[in-house]
Design goal:
Layout lengths: L4 H23 L19 H6 L1 E3 L3 E5 L11 E3 L3 H14 L10 E16 L6 E15 L4 E15 L3 H34 L1
Parallel strand pairs: 1-4, 2-4
Antiparallel strand pairs: 2-3, 4-5, 5-6
Helix pairs in contact: 3-4
Pfam families: LptE (PF04390)
InterPro entries: LPS_assembly_LptE, TAT_signal
Keywords: Lipoprotein
């Protein structure tokens, strides 16, 4: 491989810009969200340490009572379900891979709701697209019950319905899995931002 003079100059400029960006970002107040340099204003603990101190309660899940989630006459069924478990485990693994803290400093409560909306139907009516929306209302509190952060998050996944019971159930379960993992990332990021500015 041969290097032209232009390539060498571009490489040199790129390296210089990369080296100069660190002090510039530091000067404007930028700092890492995670790691040893992520301590909040108090300087007592890093964001990672605060996340590891959260006891995550089992999410409360509201879901349509119909197995396929549409046109149900049974109304709304409230129960813990697989989606709630996936969200709980994804949050636990993201915040503290070693499991629930033995001596937690915070608690995290989550309420989930799911809705399914048809967005497109083929002319023959044998295939359609649906959007599965998973919403979470979450509350971070200290051990005294003081509310520290109350927020909402939402994730939407589209999938195809082929009018085949097994395939359609698999498609919806896959959508539920992906929305739960996306919500876990959103919730972790918002709580991390809170600790970075208030911790």
């Amino acid at each position: 491989m041969s290097w032209s003079r232009r390539d060498v100059i571009r490489l040199g400029i790129g390296g210089f810009a990369l080296a100069a960006s660190g002090p510039l970002l530091s000067a404007c107040g930028w700092k890492p969200l995670y790691g040893n340099a992520s301590a909040g204003p108090s300087g007592n603990a890093t964001v990672d340490a605060n996340l590891a101190g959260i006891a995550i309660k089992e999410p409360f899940f509201e879901r349509d009572a119909a197995p396929f989630g549409e046109f149900s006459e049974a109304g709304s069924a409230k129960y813990d379900a697989r989606t709630a478990q996936i969200l709980h485990n994804a949050l636990r693994d993201g915040m503290n891979p070693y499991g629930q803290p033995a001596a937690p400093a915070y608690t995290l409560a989550i309420k989930l709701s799911e809705s399914i909306n048809r967005t497109l139907t083929a002319d023959e009516g044998d295939a359609r697209r649906e959007n599965l929306t998973l919403r979470a209302s979450f509350l971070l509190a200290d051990l005294k019950g003081t509310e520290l952060l109350k927020d909402k998050a939402r994730s939407i996944i589209a999938y195809t319905v082929l009018q085949d019971p097994y395939t359609d159930l698999e498609a919806r379960n896959d959508a539920r899995d992906r929305t739960a993992r996306q919500l876990a990332e959103q919730i972790k990021l918002r709580i991390s931002s809170y600790f970075a500015t208030h911790g």
